Structure formats: C-alpha cells, structure tokens
Amino acid sequence: MSEQRLWHEVDDYFTDRLLPDAPDDALAAALRDSDAAGLPKIAVSPLQGKLLQLLAQLQGARNILEIGTLGGYSTIWLGRALPADGRLVSLEYDPRHAEVAVRNIARAGLDKQVEVRVGPALESLPRLADENPPPFDVVFIDADKVNNPHYMEWALRLTSTGSLIVLDNVVRGGRVADPDNTDPDVLGTRAALDLIGGHPRLSGTALQTVGAKSYDGFALARVLA
Ligand code: SAH
Ligand code: DHB
Ligand code: MG
Q1: For atom 7 of ligand 2, which residue has the closest CA?
Q2: Distances (CA, A) of 31 to 36, 43, 44, 72, 173
C-alpha cells in the first residue's frame, strides 16, 4: 500500500470512530456545496477541524479570528466552539467563496455569531483593528501563505496574553525545509516561523501531519505577556 493510501485509511479509521455524526451534519453539507460551487478541495480535514474546535474550547474562546474562509468548513468547526454570545470574524478575498461560506454558516445555525468579511485580508485587518475589538482568543491563519508574516503581525496586534495563533500548511510536503525552494508561499511561511521563533511575546511549536490532507502541518503559538 502506498504511504498516501495508508494515511487516508488511518484518517478514515479515526474519523469513523471519533466523528461518527459527521455525514448528515451541516459540516458535510458545507463540503458538498463547496464542491458543487467549484471551490478548491483544500479545507481542513474533519479530524483537523475537530482539533481546531478542541483548541478553541480549551482556550475558552469567546472571540475567534479566521483569515481565509473558503466555504466556511473550518469556520463551522471553530464557530461551534463558541458560547451563544461568542463571535467569529472570518476574512475572505474571493466573493464567490464568501457567498458559499455565508450559506453554509447559516445552515449550521451560526449566522448570529459568525461574520464573513470580503476583501484582501491586509485591507480588512486594519479596518478591524480600528474598531477596537476585544482581543481574539484564537486566530486561525489559513489564506495566501506569502502574507503569513503580515498575518502573524496582525494576529499579535489583535490578541492578548494567553491567546492562541494557529498557522496552517507550514510543511507543504516538506518544501518548507528545502533550501532550493524559494516559492513565495514557502518564503512567507518560513518568515512566519522565524517570527514565532524569535518573538519575545510568542511561544510556539510546529507539528507535521499526515492524513487526508497528505503531508503538511500546523504551527501553534501562544501569546505571552
Ligand atoms: N480555512 C478554510 C480554507 C481556506 S483556503 C478551511 O479550512 O475550510 C484559503 C482561502 O484564503 C481561499 O478561500 C482564498 O480565496 C483565501 N485568500 C487568499 N488570499 C487571500 C487574501 N489576501 N485575503 C483573504 N483571503 C484570502
Ligand atoms: C492549499 C491551501 C490550503 O490552505 C490548504 O490547507 C491546502 C492547500 C493550496 O492553496 O493548495
Ligand atoms: Mg489550509
């Protein structure tokens, strides 16, 4: 069996046992409608979505920021971690993606708590900061990787002590550590990792993952005082 197939089979095994409700849920519907609308199949996997939800719950998150909505799949996982009066702001560049996401989020019953803002995140973030929102307890960065260092800087501005920043796709099949790879996305992720490793207000780590999303990984950073 190929490694890829093995990773998939183990992900299916875990998903069957740990996420048994998923098939008839608004989450499955969100993926189905995202597909039907031609969105790229790059949402987090179900097991990864559940990890994001658990992390948000462990944080006791009341305010969550997401950069990169796509069809709202990760948004729904994170949104379900919120208390009734919690809030999630998700930033999406592509109005077609945002439109699909808004429908998916409404079907999940999260439209009161979740707001999707359309436009380049680097334009939405300063506007958001101008509104002086309460600090975000969790920030999930999952948009254009070239801007990852900028997103890290904004995440630092919009969080406070104890907040958690999660950065997706830091491995990309191992390209992050290939010195010959100078793809702008890889450079962006390297710069974000350097920022986490060198910043006095961040304590971070990174984890490689295999599974339904092949070989990739997350970086996690906790905001210090
Ligand atoms: N978090 C989603 C997947 C996001 S895919 C999930 O796991 O379900 C990345 C998304 O980032 C895409 O929808 C893409 O349109 C969006 N994106 C790309 N560049 C962006 C930018 N500059 N600002 C905001 N969103 C951007
Ligand atoms: C891609 C983007 C993602 O956020 C992801 O999780 C996987 C793949 C991509 O652009 O290919
Ligand atoms: Mg991603």
Answers
A1: 42
A2: 9, 8, 10, 9, 24
* 194-215-218-100 Cα dihedral, nearest 10 degrees: 120
Q: Whose CA is nearest to atom 8 of ligand 2?
A: 42
Report the side by side order of strands in the sheet with 216-223.
114-118, 87-92, 63-67, 138-141, 164-168, 216-223, 202-209
**CA–CA separation, 144 vs 4, rounded Å?**
25
pLDDT at 199 over 90: yes
- Residue nearest ligand 2's atom 2 by CA: 42
169 CA from centroid of ligand 3 (Å): 5
Cα 148 to middle of ligand 1, angstroms: 12
pLDDT, tens digit, for every residue of 93-139?
Answer: 999 999 999 999 999 999 999 999 999 999 999 999 999 999 999 99
Query: What distance in angstroms lies between residue 94's CA and the mean position of ligand 2's atoms?
Result: 15
Section 167-196 average pLDDT: 97
